[in-house]
């Protein structure tokens, strides 16, 4: 066993704590993490220096980094109920995105998730796919020439989210909603968190207040009609006991889901575009598969059949997991590999680190989608070596929606354009809070 919960004072005292990082390492990591540019190298240095677990003090809180698939399994599955997901995420984004599904724990989380699942069942996903395809076609129609891919994908995915999630047609209302989400995401990572006019944090708070009012006004109509958008489905959703979500729950979930869906999808599409632009042989393989299907749009039933596109997507998510680290708060003391972790510590596991461990993914810096092919299946060597969608009770509820959207966009894109980056270009990545290019990713799209 890698972990054991301790309950007696004598037993706890007999177990040594995790090693503590030196102040020099802590300072270097703080600088790199504050700049959000090279989180991976700081994690790798800590792992080399201290092994699979290390602790340091950050103000009043013990910060604990646990490394490797075994640590991921312990923290994400949380079979002993050791960890809170709500507490760290509330500290990070709770004033902007309070009470989203990720920010709930235990029985409450399980209850809400079960009701919300109604909006992510197969028939709902099929409906979303049918509605997003014409939007994708219209959205990428004028992409010929040079453009910043990240910004272009952000506009596209926000437009799709406004339509699929809320049922809003493109127009001024959608543009206002898109701007509000930009403000809210920026505010969630603000260093100065004061509600002072002119600061990004105040803009985020104002944006949340606007969306809360907007959704609250829509709810009576959404509960009454048979709309196919996600807001209508959540408003009507109920479990086998007939329980429904309260109005405030629907509002909180909708605001969080729209943020999570468009941000992570934009990140993944941008990174995939970069790798396909750098590896034209893989771009041609994806294009050949798309044309072989013989359809301008990807039907929902086709999503899992696109084998080459699946390999590329999985390798992209390995190299650039949208969420590079996953935090939890330890509710009780516990043991990891014979070392004690104290209650109250913020425990962090890092997909971006595990995904680049050469013992699990050989030549980790090489873009090699074949590593996910059945004959190699490097991601199946351990249940928690590849965790772009998290795991356990908080495993991403919208992962099938994200897969459908990413593949639908890429299917149409490769059928319409061949795309490239300048020779020798390397994408400068900002790894947190969501993986994205610092320069927007300049790409040239050439119409076929």
Name the CATH class.
Answer: Mainly Alpha
Radius of gyration: 22 Å
Task: Tell me the structural class.
Answer: alpha+beta
- Work out the strand percent: 5-15%
The CATH topology is Cytochrome p450
Query: How much helicity do the residues have?
Result: 40-55%
Task: Tell me the series of helices and strands, N- to C-terminal.
Answer: EHHHEEHEHHHEHHHHHHHEEEEHHEEEE
Distance between the termini: 56 Å
User: How many DSSP H or I helices?
Assistant: 16
What is the mean pLDDT? 91
Quick one: biggest sheet? Answer: 5 strands, mixed
Count the beta strands: 13
- Specify the overall morphology: globular
In CATH, what is the homologous superfamily? Cytochrome P450
Strand order of the largest sheet: 2-3-9-6-4
CATH architecture: Orthogonal Bundle
Instruction: Estimate nothing, just give the exact number of structural domains.
Output: 1
Q: Are there runs of 5+ residues with pLDDT below 50, and where? A: 5-10
Describe this structure in words.
The protein is of the alpha+beta class. The protein has one domain: Cytochrome P450 (Cytochrome p450). 50% of the residues lie in helices and 11% in strands. The chain is built from 16 helices and 13 strands. The strands form four sheets. It has a five-stranded mixed beta sheet, sandwiched between helices. A three-stranded antiparallel beta sheet has the order 1-7-8, with no helix packed on it. Strands 5-13-10 form a three-stranded antiparallel beta sheet. The radius of gyration is 22 Å and the shape is globular. The relative contact order is 0.17. About 1% of the residues have low confidence.
């Amino acid at each position: 066993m890698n972990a054991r919960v301790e309950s007696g004072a004598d037993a706890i005292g007999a177990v040594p704590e995790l090693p503590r990082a030196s102040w020099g390492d802590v300072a270097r990591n703080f600088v790199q993490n504050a700049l959000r540019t090279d989180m991976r190298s700081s994690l790798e240095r800590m792992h080399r220096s201290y092994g699979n677990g290390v602790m340091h003090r950050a103000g009043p809180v013990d910060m604990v980094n646990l490394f490797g698939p075994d640590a991921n399994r312990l923290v994400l599955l949380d079979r002993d109920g050791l960890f809170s997901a709500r507490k760290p995420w509330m500290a990070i984004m709770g004033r902007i995105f309070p009470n989203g599904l990720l920010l709930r724990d235990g029985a409450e989380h399980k209850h809400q998730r079960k009701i919300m699942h109604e909006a992510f069942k197969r028939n709902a996903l099929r409906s979303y796919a049918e509605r997003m395809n014409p939007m994708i076609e219209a959205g990428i129609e004028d992409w010929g020439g040079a453009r910043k891919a990240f910004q272009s994908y952000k506009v596209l995915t926000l437009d799709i989210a406004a339509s699929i999630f809320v049922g809003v047609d493109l127009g001024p209302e959608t543009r206002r909603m898109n701007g509000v989400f930009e403000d809210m995401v920026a505010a969630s990572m603000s260093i100065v968190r004061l509600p002072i006019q002119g600061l990004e944090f105040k803009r985020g708070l104002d944006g949340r207040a606007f969306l809360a009012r907007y959704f609250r006004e829509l709810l009576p109509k959404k509960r009454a009609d048979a709309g196919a958008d996600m807001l209508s489905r959540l408003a009507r959703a109920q479990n086998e006991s007939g329980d429904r979500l309260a109005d405030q729950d629907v509002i909180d979930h909708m605001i969080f889901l729209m943020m999570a869906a468009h941000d992570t999808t934009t990140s993944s599409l941008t990174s995939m575009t970069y790798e396909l632009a750098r590896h034209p042989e893989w771009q041609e393989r994806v294009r050949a598969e798309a044309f072989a299907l013989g359809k301008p749009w990807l039907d929902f039933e086709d999503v899992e059949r696109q084998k080459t596109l699946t390999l590329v997507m999985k390798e992209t998510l390995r190299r650039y997991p949208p969420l590079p680290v996953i935090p939890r708060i330890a509710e009780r003391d516990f043991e990891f590999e014979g070392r004690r972790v104290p209650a109250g510590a913020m425990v962090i596991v890092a997909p971006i680190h595990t995904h680049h461990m050469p013992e699990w993914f050989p030549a980790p810096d090489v873009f090699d989608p074949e590593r996910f092919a059945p004959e190699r299946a490097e991601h199946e060597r351990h249940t928690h070596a590849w965790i772009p969608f998290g795991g356990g009770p908080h495993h991403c509820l919208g992962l099938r929606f994200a897969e459908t959207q990413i593949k639908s966009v890429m299917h149409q894109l490769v059928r319409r354009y061949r795309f490239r980056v300048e020779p020798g270009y390397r994408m400068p990545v900002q790894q947190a809070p969501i993986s994205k290019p610092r320069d927007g990713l300049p790409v040239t799209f050439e119409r076929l």
